[in-house]
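Hello K.,

You asked for the raw outputs rather than the summary table, so here they are, unedited. I folded two proteins back to back in the same session to keep the settings identical. This is the first:
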Amino acid sequence: MSSEKKKVHAFKDDALGELDAVGIAARIKNKEISAKEAVEASIERAKDVNPHINAIVTELYDRALGESEKGHEGPFSGVPMFFKDMLMVKGVPAYHGTTANKNIW
């Protein structure tokens, strides 16, 4: 029996390609893709990978899609991102990495 673990990655042939945040921001700025397309691709990648890595505690996909349709300013405007549950984000529980905190926050 092999003790080798299955490798998991999120790269796909989608709006994000193999780009980093700078590349995605450039594609959005140049109107090659919309912020919504970037968010949709990010959500699909997250849904594929999260069952293997269990990194997303609170799914805010609908909120992210709504935010993607708003105009934002800044160098990374429209670039999807995920936050660890250690940060205080309005309307989102912060468990600080453990379900032991689930009922106190």
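The second followed immediately with the same parameters:
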Amino acid sequence: MIDEVAEESAVPTKIVVGTDGSDTAGRALRKAIGLAKAVAAELIIISAYNDRAPAGVASAGIALDAGFAGAAHSAAETIVQQASDQARAAGVANVTALVVAGEPANSLVDATVEHNADLLVVGSKGMHAAVRFLQGPVAKKVSQRVACDLLIVETGEKPR
């Protein structure tokens, strides 16, 4: 019985956090960095991007779609590199940076499985009022599918 309680209350050893470089994602990232440092956990930072041009411009052809994907990938690489540098500067010893083409919520859930993570940290952006029903925020989507603990960080949006 005591072993079961100790196992259930164990601190996380692998923490996944996603970022798109926004201020609200930055708040969740800072929380994940603080937790990873405090418990000496591995921090897996993901930046997911859409690799297809928006529908309105997609009709311009394949070359535009390929150019859009390249630019989106490059931007995601910059974002995840800056986040990784921030984590290392804060004292997190074990940082993994990932750039993934795909929908953010799916990418985060997949990463928790692939890396055997025991905590996913996301921001609350879009979780308040009617916005949560209209925009389908990442936090809401992952909460319905993730198989590890989930921390939703208040990112500063307040109900009106």
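The longest strand covers residues 42-49.

Happy to rerun anything if the numbers look odd on your end.

Regards,
P.
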